[in-house]
Amino acid sequence: MSGLRKDFLWGGATAANQCEGGYLSGGKGLGTVDVIPHGTYRKAIMKGEMHYKDLPEDAYFPSHEAIDMYGNYKEDIALFAEMGFKCYRFSFAWSRIFPTGKELEPNEEGLKFYEDFINELLKYNIEPVVTICHFDLPLTLVEEYGSWRSRKVIDAYVRYCKAIFERFNGKVKYWMTFNEINMLMHLPFMGAGIMFEEGDNKLQVQYQAAHNELVASALATKLAHEINPENKVGCMLAAGDYYPYSCKPEDVFAALGKDRENYFFIDVQSRGEYPCYAKKFLEKNNIQLEMGEEDEKVLKENTVDFIAFSYYSSRVVSADPTVGEPKQGNAFAGIKNPHLPESEWGWQIDPLGLRITMNTLYDRYQKPLFIVENGLGAVDTLKEDGTIEDDYRIAYLEAHIKAMIEAVEEDGVDLLGYTPWGCIDLVSASTGEMKKRYGFIYVDKDNAGNGTLKRYKKKSFNWYKNIIANNGLK
Ligand code: BGP
Questions:
Q1: Catalytic one of 20, 180, 213, 406
Q2: Active site includes 180?
Q3: What is the ipTM of this complex?
Q4: Per the structure, how many domains does the chain have?
Q5: Nearest one of 359, 381, 373 to 435, comparing CA atoms
Q6: Which among 205, 223, 200, 196 has a CA at the least distance from the CA of 148?
Q7: pLDDT digits over 228-245, tens only?
């Protein structure tokens, strides 16, 4: 038995656009992710540097069918229950509930879908943990308002939150306002529906969008608490501390600066105000934020209850741009850490980095943490006999769980739960591929969209089941 809480929330995590499919079913409108293609143009679209209207006609959009959890959720939830999940983190597709985002009343069919979904989880005593917006907003809000550039999207978001908080009152307690809110700075269209126009001062656009999201997040937190004081609302950060490339003070200072680019978001969400370094940064870069009269008060009075984060790897930075080998891989540019191995997609593997990040976050905020994403994207082989031997995934997760438990037992970090990413194989966010798999459950589908969608248990399925049963490593 580990020193984790008795009610520790072991589970798994997914997001609507990466697994649901049914992209126009039940009255759903188009979401931003529905126009992000697989293949050549994906990066440019995700960065907001190319318009999706300029895509070739034969572009393939993986979110349209994904793994059809929309049609298969009962089977999938039964498998999660078989593993012993205590919770399941998933997101609502905003455009399923408000197809254009502009409606004053929600789409009943969309709400009903999630109600049935949540009831199915509750049937197995699985606690639903909901991300309100996971890289996905109604496309109409982009086309008509320029997405989070506009304060009108704050109103649309609050309307959406009111509808879901009221409908799922008493059934859903854990909410996260935005998935990886800092992704806005790296992949602005994927993260927040931001498309750049000619002449845009990019930083100005991004920080205004960030401000609007932060206000929306605080208003949602306020509403959630008013509707039910038992509600717990979290922020969600793509985390992973920056290491200085060397012990040169310049490198250490550069790492501090890079960390602040990310922590800025949750500093505001957790402490309720812009940190001094952010105010100076805005000033220096001549960024003028359009603020509402009440914004500062709203931010101050409505801070989050817990800090959720994803952790895949640490990052490295040097003050000298000519030093080190550039790192391939995820959205967070950086240089290669020569001391770490890496995945097939170039994501470096650093379990101790998880413990370090947990300590940084807990020292900084003293609020409970929730690890809502962690995992290894890898190529799996389905054998003739229907088995998948994913020992590499078990090794990755085991090392990270060990580090996580050490942070709790030896450092005293307060941790609510752990939901490894992509507990069932799904579409990769960065590449749009199916072959980059994270799951305990294999889904028969390939990058081009072919496959039976049949589900198979991997070796890691029973391994994780045991971890949950033991409340940690034996
Ligand atoms: C995070 C996202 C997820 C997820 C994960 C893995 O950034 O919140 O949506 O996809 O990364 O990334 P990828 O799918 O690119 O391997």
A1: 180
A2: yes
A3: 0.98
A4: 1
A5: 381
A6: 205
A7: 999 999 999 999 999 999
